[in-house]
Write a structure and sequence with these properties.
The complex is a heterotrimer of chains A (about 325), B (about 325) and C (about 525).
Chain A (H helix, E strand, L loop, with lengths): L1 H9 L1 H20 L6 H26 L7 H15 L4 H27 L5 H19 L9 H8 L1 E2 L3 E2 H19 L1 H11 L1 H6 L4 H27 L6 H17 L11 H20 L7 H15 L16
Antiparallel strand pairs in A: 1-2
Helix pairs in contact in A: 2-13, 3-8, 3-11, 3-12, 3-13, 4-5, 4-6, 4-11, 4-12, 5-6, 5-11, 7-11, 8-9, 9-11, 12-13, 13-14
Chain B lengths: L4 H6 L4 H5 L2 H20 L6 H26 L7 H16 L2 H29 L4 H20 L10 H8 L8 H19 L1 H11 L1 H6 L4 H27 L8 H13 L11 H20 L4 H19 L7
Helix pairs in contact in B: 3-14, 4-9, 4-12, 4-13, 4-14, 5-6, 5-7, 5-12, 6-7, 6-12, 8-12, 9-10, 10-12, 13-14
Chain C lengths: L7 E10 L2 E11 L4 E5 L6 H8 L7 E6 L2 E3 L4 H6 L2 E4 L11 H5 L6 E2 L2 E2 L1 H14 L16 H14 L4 E5 L7 H16 L3 E5 L3 H7 L2 E6 L2 E7 L5 H9 L22 E8 L3 E8 L4 E5 L6 H8 L7 E6 L2 E2 L5 H4 L6 E4 L3 H5 L6 H5 L8 E2 L2 E2 L1 H15 L15 H13 L5 E5 L7 H16 L3 E5 L3 H7 L2 E6 L2 E7 L5 H8 L16
Parallel strand pairs in C: 3-10, 3-11, 6-9, 9-10, 15-22, 15-23, 18-21, 21-22
Antiparallel strand pairs in C: 1-2, 1-4, 4-5, 7-8, 11-12, 13-14, 13-16, 16-17, 19-20, 23-24
The chains are: A mainly alpha (about 325), B mainly alpha (about 325), C alpha/beta (about 525).
Chain lengths: ~325, ~325, ~525
């Protein structure tokens, strides 16, 4: 029985995020005029999956006690790039997909290289690289435009067996193929160690540099997956500054809601996914309750403020005030 | 002692330069470089009129960056700048619509609204121990929400009262724009606060090691809360000045000030981890960024190029003097 | 006297940190099947030498040979490959990972490229059993374990790597007596299996029990190597400090205790499970010591007085009046006048990058400010007084305090509190890691302060200090006062006996110490 207790304690953040999401989703679908239909689920899934990918990307970096303020820009950049490359015949499209994902990986790798080898702080590094990536996105698409291989786009944003949204399946596949192997690999373990205590990790001979580099690069790739999907939904590429900023900031919110500690070393990308989905659903609750859309930003903001304050309840249990301070 | 490239270069430089903070010297050197580059493009670049204009534009960023510096010195960050700026502007303009009393109180009202936001940030960070990044993100979203509701989704209609316009564009001392004087005054107060008061000592102490500051008998939480309130007030004041400059407020007027404010503070040698930095550096950082932005527009560089150059410059400069020392 | 040829040899190793010479042409030989103790004051270079051996830092000069071949280690991982494993004082455990994760962290068992959790669990359980720590659950998160358990995990982790050379750097400081004896059994067994063990410790009795040979370091070089037991303790200490040595403690006060109310008192003080019903009182002019093994509540008691703990039950009285102290800020106010010299000067006592001046005046700023503005002349006067009083050696007042030696850093911590002329002074193991000279100065200072009327509570892990400095010693066990020793009753035997919760003095148990 003690086994369960340990596992439970470790997964607490993720389970909480799952609970919040389920709660929000139930409220959403039960009040939606169309109810719990496949179409409703599909739309919700498509929107949520976008943020989920970016949130996964952010998780990887946050685990190493870093932060990536450029994920939103990588998202936008890969969207613009995809609107050029993911077109044409099957081979060309496949090549396009690979190129887009590769670009994301490259962006992440640049971030990682500057942080690790340049020894700069992640927050300022990624602010600067974010500007660079956005500039490149603007070069690619000064005006919204482009197109995408519509067969692929429709297939991946549609439904499987008429019920299950394909985007969710793709998300699940990415989790199984990317997150699970990484989190259980030596590099993944090392990433957690780096965030938890870099000195101890170094003394223990953990491959710190490689792990951090892998985290940043994978993050870029995941953000690129999100960018790809954005292209599949919108059929265009657009260098939208506001959107990029929003995705960056929301990814941080999703990560926190998902039980990942901003100080590093604790949490799971799965929690961040639920955090992202919950965050999206909350935004949609207004629509469902027929509130004036004017109130949506305020509602979203208040919910965010409330959600992040929840962690403060743990403060009451603190018995030694020194625990408040690092 | 950190062993940066610039430090090694500095050991070869004359003594008076060596004593100054390496980062500040580098920042000023870059300003001179930019002025030189600008003069290559256009001879009027170095004219006093143009330079004063630059200084005026820099003042807006300067006021905002002052607040940001205070928060970064503590080891935190304030991401609520975009909408605090907007709130200051919009609330200031809104108050002016309420008759002569409103007009008189417009500027203080705007600043107070900003301080309220800062206070909420401060309570969240200091007393609820939530990471600053996330609290200020949330308050930014709430502030945005409130303004959207207030304006009904449209652009704000109220125009800026005379007081705001005078502060931003008037000339109390002939030849020097008011905005510059305001920035200078605020800067002087901040320098005094940081170097000659116990509050300033406390800020540096908390930024260095909050635990030790607490065990030394300091009420660290109250100081952090006050600092965030000041930062909010200054951001809002920046918004007030901006509204005065443009004669009205606008929806996303604050968005383009967040990253430059952070960059200005960091390029000026303030450590993002807190506990280290001088205001002179922030001044240099603000002027540097303003000049960079204006050179790029003089060169008629498209937005894409501007963003890229902006990012590259920050990375390169930080690689010169912002690196954490190696481990072995 | 080596039967076996040396396994590892270090010759002419030098290392500098900035202007400080940590090691100066140091040598060391390590042979298999022997336990080699390394002694020396902090700053003598032994920790640096060990770090070089373990691959944590790189030497500036010198060479290392292992099995006759020249080697150099670029990282802890490289040293581990060669069979050199170092156990630090819990610095190498990852707090957010489980015990099992930590034990196998350098070389986890893999299956299809992913970490095999079941195999990992088995390895962890074996390692813990071998180290005598089967009470630790492999799934527990390291950050949830108390310090003594964490040290056991650290040792289990080192043993799991099947080292050829095992280095223990003060690795037993927080262990209970049972842990220590179990570990010693394991180490002796490993020695007979051919392990070479390097043991750094200050505890003479442990070294006596374990070591085959000893090496003393001073000022960055090896000053003597000798067979264990062939020198007296005083000779050893003299080698460590390079001059004549004898414990010099200032004479204790034999003034009659006044009838005034005790300056500091607590009644039935309790806090979670760490403090149980503690009642004590301290009068002006008294130095009261807190004894007992590490982790029995001594630190928590001092924090409780200082207003850092929440959820305290019981009463605290200052000058006979009940006081409700809710923070250090309240504790330092003049009505209460308390000061705390904290446990870790680098993270709790000082802001290392800030200047000596700024650190010195930090606590007493309210005394030199008017309306929030600092009066620099007044500040300077106070600082000058303190620097003189404590003989703080510094190259200037405007250099970072991190550049000072450990002893002088601790002086700054004490000085900054003395500026407030506190009535009650609490000290949390203040002489840990301080050189002998500074220690003597501190003992003199404490006695002077007590004679001037301060009430002092002094927690120390050094028996000599408790015997030499304190008028009374309260020995804590499990959060409660086990025994009070007054005046001549304070002897090492009595301290150890009550620390181990053994009744009576006649018990001949582990740690039968020499004076």
């Amino acid at each position: 029985m003690r086994e369960w207790r340990y596992w439970f304690a470790e997964q607490r953040g993720t389970l909480l995020a799952l609970g919040i999401f389920i709660l929000m989703f139930i409220i959403y679908t039960s009040n939606h005029p169309a109810g719990l239909t496949a179409n409703v689920v599909q739309t919700a899934s498509n929107k949520g999956v976008l943020l989920a990918f970016v949130a996964m990307a952010q998780t990887l970096v946050v685990l190493t006690a870093g932060i990536d303020l450029s994920v939103g820009m990588i998202f936008i950049l890969t969207n613009c790039l995809a609107s050029w490359l993911v077109v044409g015949t099957g081979i060309e499209t496949a090549f396009g997909v690979v190129a887009v994902l590769g670009t994301g990986a490259l962006c992440g790798a640049i971030n990682g290289a500057i942080v690790i080898f340049g020894r700069l702080q992640p927050i300022v590094t990624t602010i600067a690289t974010g500007a660079i990536y956005f500039g490149i996105a603007l070069l690619l698409r000064p005006f919204p435009g482009g197109s995408v291989n519509e067969h692929l786009a429709d297939a991946l944003t549609g439904k499987l067996f008429g019920v299950v949204p394909t985007s969710l399946v793709v998300l699940l596949a990415v989790v199984l193929v990317v997150w699970v192997p990484f989190s259980r690999s030596v590099l993944g373990r090392a990433a957690y160690a780096a965030g938890s205590s870099e000195i101890a990790a170094y003394m223990s001979g953990v491959p710190l540099l490689r792990a951090k580099f892998a985290a940043y690069t994978l993050a870029g790739t995941l953000a690129a997956t999100g960018g790809l999907f954005l292209t599949f939904f919108t059929y265009t590429g657009e260098a939208a500054l506001a959107s990029g900023n929003a995705y960056t900031l929301f990814s941080i919110a999703a990560v926190v809601l998902g039980g990942v500690s901003l100080y590093g070393g604790r949490g799971s990308a799965i929690g961040a996914i639920f955090g992202a989905l919950a965050f999206r659903t909350i935004g949609d609750l207004l629509f469902v309750f027929d509130f004036d859309p004017l109130w949506q930003p305020l509602f979203q903001g208040v919910v965010l403020l409330f959600a992040v304050s929840l962690g403060a309840f743990g403060l009451f249990r603190v018995r030694n005030r020194l625990d408040w301070f690092q | 002692m950190s062993d940066t490239t610039m430090d090694r270069l500095a050991s070869h430089m004359p003594k008076f330069l060596r004593r100054a903070d390496t980062a500040v010297v580098t920042a000023f050197a870059c300003i001179i470089l930019l002025l030189f580059l600008g003069s290559l493009y256009s001879s009027s670049f170095l004219s006093p009129a143009y330079l004063l204009q630059q200084l005026k534009v820099a003042s807006f960023l300067g006021v905002i960056a002052t607040g940001m510096m205070l928060v970064i010195l503590l080891g935190h960050i304030d991401l609520s700048v975009p909408w605090t700026v907007a709130v200051g502007a919009m609330m200031g303009c809104a108050a002016a619509a309420y008759g002569p009393v409103g007009v008189a109180l417009a500027v203080p009202f705007g600043i107070c609204c900003g301080m309220m936001i800062g206070l909420v940030n401060g309570i969240g960070v200091a007393y609820l121990r939530i990471p600053a990044m996330i609290v200020t993100l949330a308050t930014n979203a709430v502030a945005q929400g409130l303004m959207v509701v207030y304006t009904g989704g449209y652009s704000p209609q109220d125009s800026a009262p005379g007081s705001m316009r005078y502060l931003a564009t008037g000339f109390t001392i002939p030849g020097i724009p008011n905005a510059v004087i305001i920035w200078a005054l605020i800067g002087a107060v901040m320098v005094f606060l940081l170097t000659r008061t116990s509050f300033g000592r406390a800020v540096y102490g908390i930024g260095n090691r909050e635990r030790a500051a607490y065990l030394s008998g300091l009420d660290t939480r109250r100081i952090v809360m006050i600092a965030f309130a000041i930062s909010g007030g200054l951001s809002a004041f920046g918004g007030v000045l901006l509204a005065g400059y443009a004669s009205k407020a606008s929806q996303s007027m604050g968005d383009e000030y967040l990253l430059p404010a952070i960059a200005a503070v960091v390029l000026g040698g303030t450590s993002i981890l807190g506990g280290r930095g001088s205001y002179l550096g922030t001044v240099a950082g603000v002027i540097l960024i303003t000049l960079l932005q204006s050179i790029l527009s003089v060169m008629q560089m498209p937005e894409a190029g501007r963003q890229i150059i902006y990012g590259v410059v920050i990375v390169v400069m930080l690689l010169l003097y912002g690196r954490t020392p190696a481990n072995r | 006297m080596n039967e076996a040829a040396p396994l590892l040899r270090m010759e002419g190793i030098s290392k500098r940190y900035g202007g400080v010479r940590a090691l100066e042409h140091a040598d060391l030989s390590v042979s298999p099947g022997r336990i080699h103790a390394i002694l020396g004051e902090n700053g003598a270079g032994k920790s640096t030498l060990i770090k070089i051996m373990a691959g944590v830092v790189a030497p500036d000069e010198g060479r290392m040979t292992m099995d006759g071949h020249e080697v150099s280690f670029g990282s802890p991982a490289a040293a581990n490959e060669a069979g050199i494993v170092c156990v630090f004082q819990e610095l190498s455990l990852i707090p957010d990972l489980s015990v099992a994760d930590n034990i196998v962290i350098s070389d986890p068992p893999l299956r299809f490229g992913m970490i095999d959790r079941r195999a990992q669990r088995r390895i962890a359980e074996e390692a813990l059993a071998r180290a005598g720590a089967s009470d630790i659950h492999p799934q527990a998160l390291v950050k949830d374990l108390p310090l003594s358990r964490r040290q056991m995990v650290e040792i289990a982790k080192a043993l799991a790597r099947k080292p050829r050379i095992l280095i223990l750097d003060e690795a037993t400081s927080a262990l209970t007596a049972t842990d220590v004896s179990r570990i010693f059994d394991v180490l002796k067994r490993l020695r007979s299996e051919g392990l070479a063990l390097l043991y750094i410790s200050h505890r003479m009795n442990e070294i006596e029990e374990l070591a085959d040979e000893c090496t003393v370091f001073r000022n960055g070089s090896n000053v003597a190597t000798y067979a264990a037991g062939s020198k007296t303790d005083n000779e050893v200490v003299e080698m460590m400090i390079g001059r004549e040595y004898s414990h010099v403690f200032p004479p204790k006060s034999d003034r009659p205790k006044s009838d005034a109310a005790p300056v500091l008192e607590c009644r039935k003080l309790s806090w979670t499970d760490r403090l149980n019903d503690i009642s004590l009182s301290v009068r002006a002019g008294e130095v009261v010591g807190l004894g007992g093994l590490d982790g029995q509540g001594q630190r928590e008691l001092l924090l409780a007085f200082f207003g850092v703990l929440r959820g305290l039950t019981g009463e605290i009285l200052v000058n006979g009046k009940p006081a409700s102290i809710s923070s250090p800020a309240a504790a330092k106010q003049d009505e209460i006048g308390m000061a705390l010299i904290p446990e870790d000067r680098k993270t709790e006592g000082l802001m290392l990058p800030m200047t000596v001046r700024e650190n010195l005046s930090f606590t007493a700023l309210d005394r030199v400010t008017k309306a929030g503005v600092i009066d620099r002349t007044a500040e300077q006067a106070l600082i000058d007084d303190m620097v003189k009083l404590l003989a703080i050696k510094t190259a200037g007042l405007d250099i970072p305090v991190g550049a000072l030696s450990g002893g002088n850093q601790q002086k700054v911590v004490i000085a900054k509190w003395l500026m407030r002329q506190p009535r009650i002074i609490l000290l949390n193991d203040p002489t840990r890691g301080i050189d002998v000279g500074t220690k003597q100065e501190m003992y003199q200072l404490l006695r002077k302060l007590a004679d001037a009327g301060a009430a002092i509570v002094f927690y120390s892990t050094d028996y000599d200090e408790l015997i030499g400095c304190c008028d009374r010693v309260l020995v804590l066990y499990d959060g409660a006062i086990k025994r009070e020793l007054v005046g001549d009753e304070i002897t090492e035997r009595a301290l150890i006996a009550s620390a181990l919760n053994i009744e009576g003095e006649g018990a001949a148990m582990a740690g039968e110490a020499r004076p």
